[in-house]
Automatic annotation (TrEMBL):
Pfam families linked to this entry: SecB
Species classification: Bacteria, Pseudomonadati, Pseudomonadota, Gammaproteobacteria, Oceanospirillales
Source organism of the structure: Vreelandella azerica
Name the UniProt record assigns to this protein: Protein-export protein SecB
The keyword tRNA processing belongs to this UniProt entry's keyword annotation: no
UniProt GO molecular function: unfolded protein binding
Record localization: Cytoplasm
Gene Ontology BP, a term: protein tetramerization
């Protein structure tokens, strides 16, 4: 039994050399929000035949030594499919404050560009749905987004542009 309580001092020293990974979500908040229905009430007099234009963007910036703000910006412009008049325009900047340490380089970039936006997007979706519904329109049910794939595509474009500038 006494042997079970003994620890290997070399193993403890190796564990201390490794940087400790820490990741926590500190706060989720709406940074900016906007809803416009420029052609109401006339838009309600005709059948609703929407044409949705969706723009999605993410940004991140370091606000302290181990704190990062990540923002998912969703812009949805819905026009009438027949007349082309704008039914509504909604913009939401859903943000989160993350404490991240022990992650660096490409892994940190991927965490900020893909993992954190995946956590924030459901909140942005709910906010967009709520605003659209409060504007008198049917909910705009945004499909889930694969931020991992978006991140990979962005990195591929950046690599192609870097090759193009070197050539």
């Amino acid at each position: 039994m006494a042997e079970d309580n003994n620890t290997n001092p070399a193993a403890g020293a190796q564990a201390e050399d490794k940087p400790q990974l820490k990741f926590s979500l500190q706060r989720i908040y709406v940074k900016d929000i906007s809803f416009e229905a420029p052609n109401s009430p006339e838009v309600f007099k005709q059948p609703f035949k929407p044409k949705v234009n969706l723009d999605l963007n993410t940004t991140s910036n370091q606000v302290a030594e181990d704190q990062f703000e990540v923002v998912v910006k969703v812009t949805a412009r819905v026009d009438d499919n027949e007349s082309g008049t704008t039914s509504f325009l909604v913009e939401v900047e859903q943000a989160g404050l993350f404490r991240i340490s022990g992650i660096e380089g490409a892994q940190l970039d991927q965490t900020l560009g893909a993992f954190c936006p995946n956590l924030l997007f459901p909140y942005a979706r709910e906010c967009v749905d709520s605003l659209v519904n409060r504007g008198g329109f049917p909910p705009l049910m945004l499909a889930p987004v694969n931020f991992e794939a978006m991140y990979a595509q962005r990195k591929q474009r950046e690599a192609q542009q870097a090759e193009g500038t070197q050539a």
